[in-house]
Specification:
The chain is mainly alpha-helical. The protein contains 7 helices and 2 strands; from the N terminus they run H-H-H-H-H-H-E-E-H. It has a domain of 127 residues.
Length: 184
């Protein structure tokens, strides 16, 4: 089952989020060192928004209604975009990347973000289980943010998980910053 390794990865990420942020209160989760940096809750909100933006595509595939862009038939384009996007969301980020406007988190205080994330992860796992028969078949989809960007479903799931890992690192950096500020 190809989906099981992805589901195991999501379970690990979810557990890491619980361990890292489960003891924080709303003030700590919403702490922002400045207006240009997202809080832990905003990082979590951003992940949920991005992941759920894939759901309509996943559902169209399952219903046999998905129409891939013409250039998704070009294997080199699918491989190129998949590789580039995956590289851009790696946790060992050296450069900050601006997200597409449709994926920006709420600018207000986000309540109960961690619990919402945990529930979301269960929903994401269900989406992945429903895609099992399509995995490993090099089926290309477009990015929910830009139809010109194409990659395989398998790569999309790798991107989703890697992106979650990236924001886990980023959120942990915020947590450390908040705690060190409080200990001064």
């Amino acid at each position: 089952m190809l989906s099981q390794s992805i589901i195991d990865r999501i379970d690990r990420i979810t557990s890491d989020f619980k361990i890292s942020f489960g003891q924080l209160n709303e003030e700590q989760l919403n702490f922002k060192p400045n207006s240009k940096i997202w809080s832990i809750s905003q990082n979590i909100d951003h992940l949920i928004i991005i992941n759920e933006s894939y759901y309509p595509i996943f559902e169209q595939i399952q219903e046999g209604k998905y129409s891939a862009p013409l250039h998704s038939k070009l294997g080199f384009a699918v491989n190129f975009f998949g590789r580039i996007i995956l590289q851009s969301v790696r946790p060992d980020r050296k450069h900050k990347i601006k997200t597409f406007p449709i994926w920006e988190p709420s600018i207000s205080i986000v309540s109960d973000s961690l619990n919402h994330f945990i529930e979301h992860q269960e929903s994401l796992k269900n989406q992945i289980k429903n895609l099992e028969q399509y995995l490993g078949k090099k089926i290309a989809i477009h990015s929910p943010a830009n139809k010109k960007i194409v990659y395989t479903i398998d790569k999309a799931l790798d991107i989703i998980c890697t992106h979650e890992e990236r924001h886990l690192v980023q959120a942990n950096e915020l947590k450390e910053g908040y705690l060190s500020k409080q200990n001064r």
